[in-house]
Amino acid sequence: MAASFVRDYARQYRRQALLAHPARHRELIERINRESLLAMVARLERDLPRRFTQSNASRARRKNAVDTVLVNLFRVNFYARLAELADWGREELASFWRDVDLYAGAALAPRSQSSRRGRRSRKLDRHLGAFADRCAFLLDSSLLEKARSAAAILHRRLERKAMIAAGAAFRSAGITMSAPRKRPPRSRMARHSSRKTARKKPPAARRFKKTVRRKRMGSNKKLTPRRKGATR
Fold first, then answer.
1. Is-above-0.90 flag for pTM?
2. Is 7 exposed, middle or buried (0-12, 13-18, 19+ CB in 10 A)?
3. How far is CA 119 from the centre of its chain?
4. Is 83 part of any domain?
5. Mind listing the pLDDT tens digit for each residue in 161-194?
């Protein structure tokens, strides 16, 4: 996926230098593959607490000791298997953990709103994240904004693939994600009575409003002069 991403980017923005040197191209692909794996694992980490909670549990019990033990046990087995497949040592796995924590922190931290650009640009900045920043510097630092936009599109595809793969794996293991609890729908009479209650003002407020209205009307009246000789 990283190779096709670099190839499409080079073709779209005419950056053939990214493909001209085989050694540098191979190194770039390896580094973007690592960033892609980080993004997918970070997305899985954010989804884990919902995977191991009971569907009928209350909010106070969602983070109980049993769920925490299950999540930690899954993490131990998952990272052990990942290190085995990637042939990592302890130092490489520890470096990967640090980068996953960086991704998770960047996903939770809000972006600054003090920019002088438009609302659309600020909204775009909030949603690009660490993956777009890091991949843009690796890919093409001279066209940073275009590289960030392309990396953000790749990030959304990676997160979608991670959720599809995780959902299939958890379903095969018999683990279903708990759905959020919904409030029961109110009846039509209950909605109508709540609207009438909200519109109806208390008596004191109505009396005060009438008094203010009378005073305003009295102050706005113009006294017309009486003609001489007019009879009452």
1. no
2. middle
3. 17
4. yes
5. 999 988 888 888 777 655 555 555 555 555 555 5
Q: Does any domain span residue 16?
A: yes
Residue 228 has pLDDT above 90, yes or no: no
Domain that holds residue 45: 2-172
| Of residues 128, 136, 137, 134, the one with CA closest to residue 155 | 128
Q: How far is residue 19's CA from residue 25's CA, in Å, rounded to a whole number?
A: 6
Is 180 within the bounds of a domain? Answer: no
Do residue 90 and residue 159 come from a single domain? Answer: yes
- Tally of domains in the chain: 2
Q: Are residues 133 and 63 in the same domain?
A: yes
| Distance in angstroms (rounded) separating the CA atoms of residues 131 and 154 | 9
3-state secondary structure the chain: CHHHHHHHHHHHCCCCHHHHCHHHHHHHHHHHHHHHHHHHHHHHHHHHHHHCCCCCCCHHHCCCHHHHHHHHHHHHHHHHHHHHHHCCCHHHHHHHHHHHHHHHHHHHCCCCCCCCCCHHHHHHHHHHHHHHHHHHHHHCCCCHHHHHHHHHHHHHHHHHHHHHHHHHHHHHCCCCCCCCCCCCCCCHHHHHHHHHHHHCCCHHHHHHHHHHHHHHHHHCCCCCCCCCCCCC
Considering only CA atoms, which of 35, 10, 45, 12 is closest in space to residue 25? Answer: 10
